[in-house]
Amino acid sequence: MVAGQEVVRFLFQRIALGALVIVFASALTFFFVNLAPGGPASVMRFDVTAEQREALIKRMGLDKPVTQRYVEWVAGAVRGDFGTSLLTDEPVAQRISERLPNTLTLAGAALLLSITLGIPIGLIQALRRGSALDHFLSFFSAIGLAVPVFWLGIVLILVFAVSLRVLPSAGLTAIGDDTVLERIRHLILPTVVLATTILPTIVRFMRSAAIEVLQEDFIRTAQSKGLAPRVVVTRHVLRNALIPVVSAIGALVPRLLGGTVVTESVFNLPGMGRLALDAAVGRDYPLVIGLTVVGAMIAVATTVIVDIAYTRIDPRVRLA
Amino acid sequence: MTRVGFAAAAVLVAIALVAIVGPLLWTIPPEATNPAQGLAGASAAHPLGTDELGRDVLSRLMHGSRVTLLVGVAATLAALLIGVVVGAIAGFNGGWTDAFLMRFTDGMLAVPAFFFILVVITVLGSGIATLILVIGALSWMPVARVVYGETLRWKTAEFVVAAISLGVPAPRLLVRHILPQAIPSLVVSATLGVAAAILTESALSYLGLGVQAPFPSWGNMLQRAQIYVFTAPVLALYPGLAITVVVLAFNFLGDGLRDALDPRRRR
Question: What is the pTM of this model?
Answer without folding.
Answer: 0.86
